[in-house]
Design brief:
Number of strands: 5
Strand content: 15-25%
Largest sheet: 5 strands, antiparallel
Helix content: 25-40%
Mean pLDDT: 90
Radius of gyration: 13 Å
Number of helices: 2
Order of helices and strands: HEEEEEH
Structural class: alpha+beta
Length: 96
């Protein structure tokens, strides 16, 4: 069985996010999806997914999610993003 393409995996992930209440950006150079609570944003570059958290979202502040979306389910991607968001929030609380 051949490996799924990144484009196909991204399409499946975006469909899952849309179905679970995430807001999906229009046709942008770097499309993104924002969680229902507005705290998490996933940015979709050509071959990578980036994560930004908090109240202000910019691609410049985003960090690589370090997940090969071709090899995991959309649910797993959301789980990793949520865990990273919570870890970043914990780090911010400890720092300040």
């Amino acid at each position: 069985m051949s490996q799924k393409t990144f484009a196909k995996a991204r399409e499946e992930l975006i469909a899952h996010l849309r179905a679970t209440g995430w807001a999906i950006s229009g046709p942008l150079k770097v499309p993104h999806a924002t969680s229902p609570d507005g705290v998490t944003r996933l940015w979709f570059k050509t071959q990578a997914v980036y994560l930004s958290t908090g109240n202000s979202h910019t691609l410049g502040d985003a960090r690589s999610l370090w997940v090969d979306i071709r090899k995991v389910s959309p649910v797993a991607v959301v789980t990793v993003a949520t865990a990273r968001r919570e870890a970043e929030a914990d780090d911010a609380r400890r720092a300040g």
